[in-house]
Amino acid sequence: STIIILNYHKEVPTWGTPAEAIEAFYLNIPIYAISDVSKTEMNSSLLWWINETDGEVFRSTSECVKFIKEKYKLQTVQPEKE
């Protein structure tokens, strides 16, 4: 994978395994988080890994998708009709 996208919600006690964040760091894979809490309320270890991988924290899925499409120059492809 070239990026990791995760959902971080206040009512969910975990954000995946710390090993995934460590692996992303060592492989230089950016971590992008979609969160319903402020950065000051996020798990500090996760926030550190996001920052160290040049990742970002977003407040919505649409904000994250827009950023990723622009950063990686992605285009939406419509399937051909038969």
UniProtKB/TrEMBL annotation:
This is Nucleoside 2-deoxyribosyltransferase. It comes from marine sediment metagenome.
